[in-house]
Amino acid sequence: MHIEQELKSNKYGVWQQLRINIHLSANWLTHLTKDFLEPYDITSKQYNILRILRGQKGSGLTILEVRDRMIDRMSDASRLIDRLSKKGLVFKCACTMDKRSNRVCITEKGLALLSEIDIKVEDLNGDFHLLDEAEAQTLNALLTKMRESRPLGKNGHAQG
Known about the structure:
mainly alpha, 57% helix, three-stranded antiparallel sheet
């Protein structure tokens, strides 16, 4: 459906349509991801944290390091990690370099859950295969170009 039909209006200029279309697309993707992860009893932010920790291959990260690598850096990483810990998917241990800080590692249960999700993740990515590889590369480049024009700082707010 074209954006004019979805909004039931054609009064928007092309730049405003683009902004609205990106918002609608982000919302669509958020809901698809939520529905996909619901059977696994985790949120997309928790999934993001588990994937970040899996990439550490057992060495773990501090909570601040996890937050800095998250897609949504405004998330309350500490609270999300506590919830994952209660589910037995991650654990905290004292940092050897700084006793005031904790490191977070993924558990075997967390790795097993990610392996289970990995088997079906193509179901989530399937809609993107409507684009051919060249179109996907172009769209990635265009979205990156837009984000790089006004990057977000560590606090999640636009710089400059």
